[in-house]
Design goal:
Structural class: alpha+beta
Shape: elongated
Number of strands: 10
Radius of gyration: 28 Å
Largest sheet: 5 strands, antiparallel
Helix content: 25-40%
Strand content: 15-25%
Oligomer: single chain
Length: 211
């Protein structure tokens, strides 16, 4: 089902919301063959727009009580517009041009959400000596959809297919401080992203000597 994007209405400036609301009333009203009985009635919404516009002008002097009254009028208008958005979605649902009809009515169509599959491996994994003894600082590029990252390591630089990688820790951020390592030794690191479908393939390997 095509859905109306409504969250941005809440962040609109009063003047922008008034213009948007009037555009919607005009848009829905221009298509009586598609929206024969708008709910709430367009006349009601027009009245609410006028009330909000008046309260907005009244609150321009910064009076707290008038700002509170303006905010109440804003909530009433948002409630009316949300109800109208549900009506337009319902009436456009079975129409092959539903998206166009909703947009012509003045509403914005929400993007379709596509479930994320297996995430790609993290990129640009870099290692650097940490200020702490026996530690290495790791960082990498963020993977969209990742809930966390698993850091794996192996002592030395031999990282062939038979290498036995061990889990060093996890991070909710795109960086990790690998501590508890032996100074003067080489270590290799790699990172996996974790999402709803599980762990990604490992990243490219980065190697560092521990200070």
């Amino acid at each position: 089902m095509i859905r109306v994007r409504f969250s941005h209405f809440i962040k609109m400036k009063p003047s922008d919301l008034i213009v948007k609301a009037q555009d919607i009333v005009n848009g829905v009203g221009s298509m009586p063959h598609v929206f024969p009985n708008p709910m709430p009635p367009l006349a009601t919404i027009t009245t609410v727009i006028g009330q909000f516009q008046t309260r907005t002008v009244d609150a321009e002097n910064g009076d707290r009580d008038k700002i509170r009254v303006r905010n109440i009028a804003r909530e009433v208008l948002l409630s009316q517009l949300f109800e109208l958005s549900q009506y337009t979605m319902m009436m456009s649902h079975s129409n092959t041009n539903g998206k166009e009809l909703i947009e012509n009515a003045g509403f914005d169509v929400a993007r379709k959400r596509h479930p994320l599959g297996l995430l790609p491996a993290p990129l640009n994994v870099l290692s650097a000596l940490s200020k702490e003894p026996g530690a290495v600082d790791l960082k990498w590029k963020r993977v969209y959809g990742a809930r966390s990252y698993q850091v794996e390591f192996i002592e030395g630089t031999e990282v062939g297919p038979q290498a036995e990688w061990k889990i060093l820790g996890t991070s909710s951020k795109r960086k990790f401080n690998a501590s508890g390592l032996q100074p003067g030794r080489f270590y290799s690191f790699r990172v996996r992203a974790y999402g709803v479908a599980g762990y990604s393939a490992p990243s490219e390997v980065t190697t560092s000597v521990v200070g």
